[in-house]
Amino acid sequence: xxxxxxxxxxxxxxxxxxxxxxxxxxxxxxxxxxxxxxxxxxxxxxxxxxxxxxxxxxxxxxxxxxxxxxxxxxxxxxxxxxxxxxxxxxxxxxxxxxxxxxxxxxxxxxxxxxxxxxxxxxxxxxxxxxxxxxxxxxxxxxxxxxxxxxxxxxxxxxxxxxxxxxxxxxxxxxxxxxxxxxxxxxxxxxxxxxxxxxxxxxxxxxxxxxxxxxxxxxxxxxxxxxxxxxxxxxxxxxxxxxxxxxxxxxxxxxxxxxxxxxxxxxxxxxxxxxxxxxxxxxxxxxxxxxxxxxxxxxxxxxxxxxxxxxxxxxxxxxxxxxxxxxxxxx
Length: 330
Description:
This protein has a single domain (8-327), classed as Aldolase class I (TIM Barrel, Alpha-Beta Barrel), CATH 3.20.20. The chain has 13 helices and eleven strands. The chain has helices at residues 8-16, 31-37, 48-63, 80-83, 92-99, 128-137, 154-173, 191-206, 229-232, 249-257, 268-271, 280-298, 307-317; strands at 20-24, 73-78, 86-87, 90-91, 103-107, 119-120, 142-149, 177-184, 215-220, 237-243, 263-266. The strands form two sheets. The chain has an eight-stranded parallel beta barrel with strand order 1-2-5-7-8-9-10-11, surrounded by six helices. A two-stranded antiparallel sheet has the order 3-4. Strand 10, helix 10 (249-257) and strand 11 form a beta-alpha-beta unit.
């Protein structure tokens, strides 16, 4: 696989290593809720700086836990404030990779716009080029950006996918791997139809990528089992990861086991049951159990690909010089 200057060891880990991604990217709007679930009340801080210091302590406790390592966790998504801080005297991204062998990603979106045509697009991302330059200098491997689909509106879903891939082009040009995340709201009354429209729109965009362009996809666990196999098998996709979307850890794990080839990128589901009031032994025990459960669900039997599948994919995607190692014939 040719690429625009990715760390090859990290790229190979994202493509082939068993495991899942830890989403530790709660931003300013979602941080109070994350801290509340962690047992830290809003009275514990008086300004944003103190709030971010508290959430960094929570993330640092997770990342430094013996259970958190590259054997089962292949990547971690960070908020910009976390990227700018240190863990044990190392920049967070360096600690993740050099100490834990976990590939660092950065959340780059700035939140959601008001709903229109059944979707919430990303707000404009001012100074994106500067942020990507900083991320590259801090040895971040890739990025993530989120938008949300509320209902099955074809025009709205196309606008979300168009926006995601336009930003992805800028990220690729900066030498980073984009995680495209058009989330389908789990409470949508026509979720399955939204997923059908979304998959078609994503496939159209994937087939337009150039020979050196690749993306990851982060998608809501679908209503139909194995619905995203076409995306998982697509030669322009490094990996497809699943967001928990508000499902409990048990429900998210159960759905994930039925979607072969998808791996988790959980946030709330990963942090479920953790508390600031726990002793280190209790904290590490709960985290260990969660990591193992999510790892097991992420690494259920992987799908195989047969020659007819490969011919169909390469015909749709254009000329591919060689088969990806994930897609060997069985």
